Amino acid sequence: MAKTMFEKIWEAHEVADGLIYIDLHLVHEVTSPQAFDGLRLAGRRVRRPDRTLATADHNTPTDGTRAAALIKDALSRVQVETLERNCAEFDVPVYSLGSERQGIVHVIGPELGVTQPGMTIVCGDSHTSTHGAFGALAFGIGTSEVEHVLATQSMVQQRPRSMRIHYSGELGFGVTAKDLILATLGHVGVGGLTGHVVEYAGPAYSTT
């Protein structure tokens, strides 16, 4: 029986029941400080620095500031400087202010070619599932999970269910795939897709 993309990715990364290997861990300055502190307290290192990539994101000024020390807001400055120190201590590659590769954490992955089809990707951010547009299986995770992935390069995760949503017909002028998905969410409610990996299909979707 043919397998879906999700089934192939999951089975290739399942270490044990409820545990999957993570190919890429994206890190930013907001959800990582406590995770690095946890490693430090436990005397642990980052398991795969080569599979981890950090960038300054949420606290980056929009005025062209090129160094963390020049950020005017004190809390933002501390968070970015803490990210830089943690990454230096734990040998994690980081694109901070001043780097030409610094940017929105979910944009630099595709831009730099590190987001690839068939990968498992996590980040301490709710927008992580957008990497699914590139054929990856991606999860947004919490700070305690960030620490676990940093330490083990794996994540505790029960296998989600699959859902396929088929869109027939043709799109109206100015209507995009995103509009279809937002309309679907409006129909099923905020919890309607919880616990599922969703495949969007059909002629209306595939021609956008």
Task: Explain how this protein is built.
With 208 residues, this protein is of the alpha/beta class. Helices cover 34% and strands 19% of the residues. The protein contains 7 helices and 10 strands. Strands 5-4-3-6-7 form a 5-stranded parallel sheet, sandwiched between helices. Helix 3 links the parallel strand 4 and strand 5. The longest helix has 17 residues. It starts with a helix and ends with a helix. The model has no long low-confidence stretch (mean pLDDT 94).
* Biggest β-sheet: strands ordered side by side in the sheet: 5-4-3-6-7
Biggest β-sheet description: 5 strands, parallel
The number of distinct helices, counting runs of at least 4 residues, comes to 7
Poorly predicted residue ranges = none
Helix content: 25-40%
Shape: globular
What sequence of helices (H) and strands (E) makes up the elements?
HEEEHEHEHEEHEEHEH
Q: What is the average per-residue confidence, as pLDDT, rounded to a whole number? A: 94
How large is the radius of gyration? Answer: 19 Å
How far is it from the N-terminal to the C-terminal residue, by CA? 29 Å
Name the beta content range.
15-25%
Structure classification: alpha/beta
**Strand elements, count:** 10
